[in-house]
Structure of Phytoene synthase CrtB:
Amino acid sequence: MSERSSLETYSRTAERAAKSVIDGYSTSFGAATALLGPSHRSHVRNVYALVRVADEIVDGLPSSAGVGPDEVGEMFEDFVAETYRALSRGVSTNLIIHAFARTARQTGIGSDLIEPFFAAMRSDLDADPPAGDRASADVRCLSATEHADYVYGSAEVVGLMCLRIFLHDNPRDDAQLPTLECGARRLGAAFQNINFLRDLADDRDRLGRSYLTEETRLSASTRDAWILTIRDQLADAEAAMPLLPYDARLAVGAATALFRALIDTIAAAPVERLYQERIRIPAHVKARLLARSTLGTLRGRSA
């Protein structure tokens, strides 16, 4: 086997590993991503896999295996360092990092987006007390400024990474880029804030974090204010969607439809329920929403 064919085989294997991550963690995002064209689909999966693994490191995966807090920090920094080495070398022995680096090098995802993401993940790790002290520790409550910084690094830059994937082979003129970038950031923020609402109990009780309020518990009025904010964010994102390539419109529109259904369900639920269960959309409802969204995009294209 030649060196080139060896690298191609390894890269295909890395992409299959990245696909297994999204298949294992997100039915909704996975279903929406399946609507992308082959190249875009593979690249988005590669980004998702790196982001998910980094998030798992700081959200307790190593601790659940008995790894101490100092070693968790080392694991995270090793992961960061290997990502940057792969970006420079074009290869990594870590399949997930290799897949991401391949995508980043091909689509122009650079440190301007990667470093804010890692900084947000690092802030979770740095702020968390050792697991054994969790019961006696104060919950970490984010101020409005801290929340904005965290959401930018943890979610908005991921939206911008996806935008670079969509546009690297479908360039847009300079006049359209600000609208597209705004839409990508607002969609990432909306998705993250919805997930914060879905994960209230786990974030507070297991991880000791309160992302949406400076109090340790979200009030009904604060929840309602976040609902309005998220609806505005989704509306801004939808305004930019017509400028996306066709397959991206299909996928992003489908994902947005699913998250709109989630926010409607969250808005109708008592706050207490949000601290008792993670709100989900039944599979048959997801299928109907995906079909309706896809059909709507198809009609828009043919109109």
